[in-house]
Amino acid sequence: MDPRPARMPWLAPYLAVKNLDRSVDFYSKAFGFKAKGMKDNYGQISHMNFFHKNTVLFMLHPEGSAGNPSRSPSTLNVNASQSFYVFVDNVDKVYEKAISNGARSVMSPEDTYWGDRVCSVVDLDGYSWSFAKYLKSKAPAKKKKTTKKTGTKKTTKKSPAKKKKTTKKATKKTIKKKTKSKKK
């Protein structure tokens, strides 16, 4: 039996936020995540799951709730020590929505050398988010040389180090021959 609730990943970040209502509104509007809350013993919503692509992406709780000492980066006045990398359908659209809802831009959308289109923002509580869409592989293709005689592909090549050893051996033999001929 799977020990997890339905649609829950094996690892889900649990973020502390200053104001739960404000953060729920931000993550829903700015990033398009779907929220589902849980009420505590007093009838207050004190925990939120955020869904993306039909799975829980992360969870939220108000700072200090249920005895949890966690604080947001903005409360601690520090840069977040981790960041989140989320794949989305439209990087530019998420970036525009995030900025218009109060996120701070770190990197506007751009195509990267590793093949993703990526943008980065910092949210209202100081957490760093990157949104990406895979475009294509940027790995360099292997080059194959065609030999002139056969027209076949050749992938192996003598190493320069072996050539040097061969050259040195040939030189030593030549020197020995010259030395022997001088002695006679």
- Here the CATH topology of the domain at 14-134 equals 2,3-Dihydroxybiphenyl 1,2-Dioxygenase, domain 1
Distance between the termini: 92 Å
Shape descriptor reads globular
Q: Average pLDDT across residues?
A: 83
| Tally of strands | 10
List the topology elements.
Layout: E1 14-17, H1 20-31, E2 34-39, E3 45-52, E4 55-62, H2 73-76, E5 83-87, H3 91-100, E6 104-111, E7 116-122, E8 128-134, E9 145-146, E10 153-154, H4 160-183
Parallel strand pairs: 1-4, 5-8
Antiparallel strand pairs: 2-3, 3-4, 6-7, 7-8, 9-10
Helix pairs in contact: 1-3
Protein name: VOC family protein
Domain VOC: 7-134
Region (Disordered): 139-184
Task: Give a verbal description of the structure.
- By secondary structure, the protein is an alpha+beta fold.
- It has a domain at 14-134: 2,3-Dihydroxybiphenyl 1,2-Dioxygenase, domain 1 (Roll).
- Helices cover 27% and strands 31% of the residues.
- It is built from four helices and ten strands, in the order βαβββαβαβββββα.
- It has helices at residues 20-31, 73-76, 91-100, 160-183; strands at 14-17, 34-39, 45-52, 55-62, 83-87, 104-111, 116-122, 128-134, 145-146, 153-154.
- Strand 3 and strand 4 form a beta hairpin.
- Helix 1 runs antiparallel to helix 3.
- The chain is globular, with a radius of gyration of 30 Å.
- The relative contact order is 0.13.
- Mean pLDDT is 83; it is low at 162-166.
- This is VOC family protein.
- It comes from Spirobacillus cienkowskii.
- Residues 139-184 are annotated as: Disordered.
- Pfam families: Glyoxalase.
